[in-house]
């Protein structure tokens, strides 16, 4: 008697809902992986801490020297040391400076700012306005402050409106001490009305 062996392959039929669920999960996993890669790349490139609605007080020997406020502050931790320790204010900044008697003697605002840790340079850009204690107003699109040498400088057009409408001055660039008592303009033009007690424009305090 001949024996016939028949091999039977078993097929499992999955419900349609399970198949669709698997497809959705697979798609979601792919998207999650893409998001993870994107976030990882951002962290790798930027290495930055972001703080919102920031107020920073600068003091020396218990005396407040300045107060900084900003909608956002970024602190960089670049492992290449290119930006290590830099502070960036992409949404604008306001800094108020105080004298030894805790009175405001200078105020500066801009739509963008960055402080470079290595050099101690603070860069202000876009609608930069500096108001001095005597009311004189400095306006420019670029301004640098050198903390180590206590001086301002820039390489773009700048203008100063003097207190009480006594005149104005423009220049293609300038350098100055922190109190604007020793100012050097390049390519300067302007108009200034002298009073009986003053021969030269009083920039600073």
Automatic annotation (TrEMBL):
Output the Gene Ontology terms for molecular function: lipopolysaccharide transmembrane transporter activity
**Entry annotated with the keyword Signal:** yes
Q: Does the keyword Signal apply?
A: yes
Q: Which InterPro entries match?
A: LipoPS_assembly_LptC-rel, LptC
Name the GO cellular-component terms: plasma membrane
Alphabetical keyword list:
Signal
Q: For this UniProt entry, which residues form the secretion signal?
A: 1-28
- State the NCBIfam families in the record: LptC_YrbK (TIGR04409)
Name the record gives this protein: LPS export ABC transporter periplasmic protein LptC
């Amino acid at each position: 008697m001949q024996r016939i062996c028949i091999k039977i392959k078993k097929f499992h039929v999955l419900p349609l809902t399970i198949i669709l669920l698997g497809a959705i999960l697979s798609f979601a996993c792919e998207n999650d992986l893409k998001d993870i890669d994107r976030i990882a790349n951002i962290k790798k490139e930027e290495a930055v801490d972001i703080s919102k609605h920031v107020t920073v007080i600068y003091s020396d020997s218990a005396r407040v020297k300045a107060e900084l406020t900003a909608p956002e502050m970024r602190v960089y931790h670049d492992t290449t040391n290119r930006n290590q320790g830099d502070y960036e204010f992409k949404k604008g900044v306001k800094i108020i400076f105080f004298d030894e008697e805790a009175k405001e003697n200078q105020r500066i605002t801009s739509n963008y700012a960055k402080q470079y840790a290595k050099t101690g340079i603070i860069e202000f850009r876009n609608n930069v306005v500096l108001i001095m204690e005597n009311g004189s107003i400095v306006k420019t699109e670029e301004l640098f402050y050198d903390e180590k040498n206590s001086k301002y400088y820039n390489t773009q057009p700048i203008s100063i409106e003097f207190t009480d409408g006594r005149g104005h001055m423009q220049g293609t660039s300038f350098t100055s001490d922190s109190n604007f008592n020793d100012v050097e303009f390049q390519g300067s033009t302007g108009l200034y009305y002298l009073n009986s007690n003053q021969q030269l424009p009083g920039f600073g305090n």
